[in-house]
Write a structure and sequence with these properties.
Elements: E1 4-8, H1 27-30, H2 33-36, H3 39-44, H4 46-62, H5 67-78, E2 83-87, H6 93-96, E3 103-104, E4 107-114, E5 120-122, E6 141-145, H7 155-163, E7 167-171, H8 183-189, E8 193-198, E9 210-213, H9 216-230
Parallel strand pairs: 1-2, 1-7, 2-3, 7-8, 8-9
Antiparallel strand pairs: 4-5, 4-6
Helix pairs in contact: 5-9
Bound molecules: ligand BV8.
Ligand BV8 binds at residues 9-11, 14-15, 20-23, 26, 37, 88-90, 106, 145-152, 155, 172-174, 176-179, 198-200, 202, 215-216.
Length: 231
């Protein structure tokens, strides 16, 4: 049966009250990427970076999944084939909305990682500089997120899904960060039909067969109904 692969970005969580990166007043308007989303920035000022992620972890903990998150969970449940959700987001709203096996290619606020031994554990609400790793006790704990210049997670699994997708949908992403921004080309190479659902055209809109503009809480449930009704 047809496999659907869905890439999501910050725009799908915008209506849950979480800031996007590049919209007006977004996260990158408040902080320089180099300072808070690179390994060099973390080495230079770990307190600033922990503060940045502690604030986002607190906001994400208060946020509720919206109609777009739950519509994708419904698609996963009711579509006769596989529905793979790959998210660039580090919040857990897809899971809170009922989605399963979500691939967090840029990591997650819920995770902590030891930069010394690679051990992973559930992140506390607040992480502090020099926090010891529960496994090797080195003061090397960091948020388990993928910074610029670092390898996104599960890329081989993602490329395999893209090669076998019949439908590829990109939801709520500006298409400016790689390798995620190139997934549409992988999907096209595999013969998929491609659709973009976004508030405004993204950097990669011209590559898609179809672009559906509007807020995700309106466009995603309508798109899911069409797919399920159409079946
Ligand atoms: C890599 C961390 C090698 C977690 C993030 C030069 C030097 C060094 C590197 C590079 C370089 N040039 C290119 C690169 C690669 C670099 C890159 O792409 N840079 C860009 C800036 C040019 N990428 C990397 O370094 C990546 N690693 O390349 O490793 C490699 C290569 C190939 C294969 C394997 C390995 C690592 C990238 C990950 C960086 N980490 N975040 C965190 O803090 O969250 S990136 C950050 O941007 C988030 O992860 C976010 O998900 C991502 C993309 O942003 P969006 O989700 O798209 O959000 P944005 O605000 O941009 O857009 C929101 C969209 O939603 C808008 O279009 C808006 O219209 C829409 N919207 C708003 N409201 C709504 C809505 N849509 C619908 N409804 C609404 N209501």
């Amino acid at each position: 049966m047809e496999k659907i692969v869905i890439l999501t970005g910050a725009g799908i969580s915008a209506e849950s009250g979480l800031s996007t990166f590049r919209d007006e007043g977004g996260l990158w308007a408040q902080h320089r990427i180099e300072d808070v989303a690179t390994p060099e920035g973390f080495a230079r000022d770990p307190a600033l970076v922990h503060g940045f992620y502690n604030a986002r972890r607190a906001h994400a903990a208060q946020a509720k999944p919206n109609a777009a998150h739950s519509a994708l969970a419904r698609l996963q449940r009711d579509w006769p084939g596989d529905v793979i959700i790959v998210t660039q987001n580090v919040d857990s709203l897809h899971e809170a909305g009922g989605a399963e096996d979500v691939i967090h290619m840029h990591g997650s606020l819920a995770g902590a990682l030891c930069a010394a031994c690679g051990h992973r554990w559930a992140a506390p609400p607040e992480m502090a500089v020099g926090e010891p790793c529960p496994a090797c006790h080195a003061p090397a704990a960091r948020p388990d997120v993928v910074w610029f210049g670092e390898m996104p997670y599960q890329m081989d699994v993602i490329y395999d899904h893209l090669a076998n997708a019949r439908i590829f949908a990109s939801i709520g992403t500006s298409g400016q960060v790689y390798p995620a921004a190139a997934f549409v080309h992988e999907a096209i190479a595999g013969g998929a039909r491609t659709v973009e659902l976004n508030l405004e055209p993204s950097a990669g809109s011209s590559s898609f067969d179809e672009t559906i503009l509007g807020p995700a809480t309106e466009t995603v449930p309508r798109w899911v109904n069409k797919l399920l009704g159409q079946r």
